[in-house]
Amino acid sequence: MLQPNLADLDQYSDVVHTRRGEAVTVRFVTPDDAEALQAYVRGLSSRSRYNRFLGAMSELPRAVLEDFTHTGRDDRFSLMAIMEVGGVERVVAEARYAFHPEDHGVEFGLSVQDRWQGHGIGPALMQNVECRAAALGSKTMFGDTLRSNDVMITLAKKSGYLFRQHPDDWKLVRFEKRIAEAAPVPCASLRLVSAAEPLGEMPAH
Asked: Which of 50, 133, 162, 194 could connect to 106 by a Cys-Cys bridge, CB 3.0–4.6 Å?
């Protein structure tokens, strides 16, 4: 199991690709990214923001933004997906996941900027989160989404998730997947775990 080194987050960055082969850098969010992350959220359509945050909002409240930009706090991690568009780096997607040590489960959610939906970024980002979850020692991945969120439901189904009724809210559905049954794509986090295992250097979580 990998306990990320919060003082050196760059080593956990990965590159995934769109369906057309464009490179997308996936990295942890830092406090310096607060403005860029907030701009990304503001730039989502109202429907995409509603689906992602399960309610109406125009931007991240200050406390939520603070939480998002402090990766690793309380075993919660935030990711940004960045592409070079017209010579300028743009945030095209984000993801957030939380490790639950009591059952080794990881809860997650993600969004893709409206312009870049349908380009394969969502599936690639979801696979990357699964790989990072496996590095944390996760046994299961799960997420909650609105019953009306056809985009997320379709993505989860295509990615092998099973659906069940949400335990607390009839407006939501829960999707789950056994990490042990998945074949995570290689990611920096999992490579670091593999490199540490033979030397017995895997720190306790």
From this structure: 133
pTM of the model: 0.89
Question: What's the CA gap between 59 and 38, in Å, rounded?
Answer: 6
* Cα gap 195→172, rounded to integer Å: 40
- For the chain, 205 residues long, the average pLDDT of each consecutive 10-residue run is 73 95 96 97 97 94 95 92 93 96 93 96 96 91 96 95 92 91 76 62 39
Write out the DSSP string of the chain. -----TT-GGGG-EEEE-TT--EEEEEE--GGGHHHHHHHHHHS-HHHHHHHHTS--SS--HHHHHHHTSTTGGGEEEEEEEEEETTEEEEEEEEEEEEETTTTEEEEEEEE-GGGTTSSHHHHHHHHHHHHHHHTT-SEEEEEEETT-HHHHHHHHHTT-EEEE-SS-TTEEEEEEEGGGS-PPP-HHHHHHHHHGGGT-----
